[in-house]
Design a protein that fits this description.
alpha/beta; Carbamate kinase; about 35% helix; binds uridine-5'-diphosphate; Uridylate_kinase; cytoplasm; UMP kinase activity
Length: about 240
């Protein structure tokens, strides 16, 4: 098997960093994921990471709060994940830069597209925090946006508790059927809940391939980079 991609955006949901309790940060889980990131980095892949924040806060989870304020809290949560991931990667000698879409000069660089690309070219792993910087968006949309901006070859959507896209929720329906391949338009037409429609449309309009796979086995990150057929492949 050979290297399939030169530059990737890896989207890690907050849940993927949370271990089994679903909340907060599980350091062992982050360590395991970091080792896999190091492996693909050592293979020569340019790695940009978009982190979610659902392990701390989701904007839509509090109906009693102003939505924009709640979303900003969610974006702050992603920054905690970004810093934890940076720490874990640097502990195993992977050089990283965190770029935040909301300026926080003391802890991260601001997001600057050309600078992010330069970091990648120099072999640094770039971690994008604070989503798009705008309320009413998601970190899946951030992954689509950043992938388009930095001209990534693919987005890896690493999911916890599920290993691809199904026609119905496999946790509720044991006969749910997994798709090996899909087109973006199918996700929209069938209402498959793998990504929100903003993220899906952005990927579709910009022709960015996506691989959805399970992160419960962190080896999957390396396997996908090497072209092993796992998860669901989605194309324009
Ligand atoms: N968020 C936002 N704008 C963005 C990205 C994220 O407002 O561009 C907020 C939103 O409230 C979201 C939260 O940050 O619920 C955490 O992100 P997300 O739910 O995408 O994280 P994940 O589900 O991937 O852990």
């Amino acid at each position: 098997m050979s290297l399939q991609y030169k530059r990737i955006v890896l989207k890690l949901s907050g849940e993927a960093l949370a271990g089994n309790n679903g909340m907060g940060i599980d350091l062992e889980t982050i360590r395991n994921i970091s080792y896999q990131i190091k492996k693909i980095h050592d293979l020569g892949v340019e790695v940009a990471i978009v982190v979610g924040g659902g392990n701390f806060w989701r904007g839509r989870s509090s109906k009693d709060m102003d939505r924009a304020t709640s979303d900003y809290m969610g974006m702050l949560g992603t920054m905690m994940n970004a810093l934890a991931l940076q720490d874990a990667l640097e502990k195993i000698d992977v050089i990283t830069r965190v770029q935040s879409a909301i300026e926080m000069r003391q802890i991260a660089e601001p997001y600057i597209r050309r600078r992010a690309i330069r970091h990648l070219e120099k072999g640094r792993v770039v971690i994008f925090g604070a989503g798009t910087g705008n309320p009413f968006f998601s970190t899946d949309t951030t992954a689509a946006l950043r992938a388009a901006e930095i001209e990534a070859d693919v987005i890896f959507l690493a999911k916890k508790g599920v290993d691809g896209v199904y026609d119905s929720d496999p946790k509720l329906n044991k006969n749910a059927k997994k798709f090996d391949t899909l087109n973006y338009i199918d996700i929209l037409n069938l209402g498959l809940g793998i990504m929100d429609s903003t993220a899906t449309s952005l990927c579709m309009d910009n022709n960015i391939p996506l691989v959805v796979f399970g992160i419960d086995d962190p080896d999957n990150i390396v396997n996908v980079v090497l072209g092993k057929k796992i998860g669901t492949n989605i194309k324009g």
